[in-house]
Specification:
This protein is an alpha/beta fold. It has a single domain, classed as D-Maltodextrin-Binding Protein, domain 2, CATH 3.40.190. It contains 14 helices and eleven strands. The strands form four sheets. Strands 1-8-7-9 form a four-stranded mixed sheet. Strands 4-11-5 form a three-stranded antiparallel sheet. The chain has a two-stranded parallel sheet with strand order 2-3. α3 packs across α12. The protein is globular. It comes from Methanosphaerula palustris (strain ATCC BAA-1556 / DSM 19958 / E1-9c).
């Protein structure tokens, strides 16, 4: 274990030096990095920034809406493949792959993107620090029947209960987002604290291999990645996000408040197209898999992941409720990240543009 931690510390140092020297994003980095300090990448730097003044008109005359690509598939991808954005006068421009919600928040707040996706945990944290964004439409839910995240140990692992996690290494995709905060909530619910475990950062794509090679003790993949891990075998579920949080919309699609104020018509059209795709998928799951596989193939993704797709677990009607957000506000008050009464759910999201509200 000491040797593994030494390697991790060295990796963090090297990454930090390179990042500072070159000013590059670390998206796609495959090195495991560890920390016990809660962070939200870039939110402090970006909180005072304003959107780019670049032209919003595409070559086709449609309104160009910049969005990040994700390591998995999103409802934005499906709505785009269905042509729903084009119907609403919008052309989605994918600006490159990001490594999770905190980075998406940074790119939208800084004006590099117009929309982004993130778990409410990271969004609440960012808004508390002054980042000017607001969620306009749900993007991923979780339920006991179809959770978004699962925490796995090897079948041969001695980890059976929460108490067995003490001193163990848990891999999450990024700090300050869903897997990180659900892990924290689970530990609190079982009379442990984050200081009792070692949280490490690892891309979803590398989690299963790292677990099977003994580099980490527990992994927390989401969506299609946990479905692949189960299909490959050799792993055992410890708990799911829905067992910790209950059924909820746990990820939202957001825009900067400045963008919303300048382009309320585009916000409304975007939400209309996105919610239409959410509901279409519920009735056409097999066709969704085909379209998402096409999207991944055309955008350098792993098209086989689409075969594991089982929806986004978003309630009908596809709206956000106060309880989706209040859970995370309460967790952060408990951690001391927020003061009681500092934020309320309406500071985080709006259903103003949602045709189902």
């Amino acid at each position: 274990m000491e040797k593994k931690i030494q390697y991790v510390i060295i990796a963090i140092f090297v990454i930090a030096v390179i990042g500072i020297a070159l000013g590059i994003s670390l998206t796609g980095n495959k090195t495991v990095s560890t920390t016990k300090t809660q962070t939200v990448s870039g939110t402090n730097q970006a909180s005072g920034s304003s959107p780019s003044t670049a032209s919003n008109t595409s070559d086709t005359g449609l309104f160009k809406l910049r969005a990040p690509s994700m390591s998995s598939v999103s409802v934005i991808n499906l709505a785009d493949e269905l042509g729903y954005y084009k119907e609403n006068g919008i052309a989605i421009e994918y600006t490159g792959t990001t490594n999770g919600g905190p980075e998406n928040i940074m790119t939208v707040a800084s004006g590099s993107n117009d929309v982004g996706l993130s778990a409410f945990s990271a969004i609440v944290n960012a808004i508390a620090k002054g980042t000017k964004i607001k969620v306009v439409v749900p993007s991923i839910g979780t339920s006991v029947d179809n959770p978004d995240y699962k925490w796995y140990a090897l079948n041969t692992s001695s980890i059976k209960t929460a108490s067995d996690l003490k001193g163990k290494t848990i891999a999450v995709n990024t700090l300050g987002a869903q897997a990180d905060y659900v892990t924290r909530a689970y530990l609190y619910q079982n009379n442990l604290t984050p200081a009792d475990v070692q949280l490490v950062v690892l891309p979803y794509e590398n989690m299963e291999q790292a677990l099977k090679q003994g580099q980490v003790d527990v992994i927390a993949p989401n969506g299609n990645f946990w479905k692949k891990a189960e299909a490959d075998g050799g792993v055992r579920t410890l708990f799911t996000d829905a067992q910790v949080t209950g059924d909820q919309v746990k990820t939202g699609t957001f825009m900067s408040t400045d963008f919303i104020e300048k382009h309320p018509d585009i916000a409304k059209k975007f939400v209309n197209a996105t919610t239409k795709a959410i509901e279409w998928d519920k009735q056409n799951r097999d066709q969704s898999r085909v379209l998402l596989a096409k999207f991944l193939s055309e955008n350098s993704g792993n098209s086989t992941l689409a075969s594991y797709f089982s929806g986004w677990s978003i309630r009908t009607p596809p709206i956000i409720t106060d309880s989706d957000v209040q859970f995370w506000i309460d967790v952060m008050v408990k951690e001391g990240t927020l003061k009681t009464g500092q934020l309320k759910p309406s500071d985080i999201y709006t259903n103003e543009f949602n045709p189902y509200a």
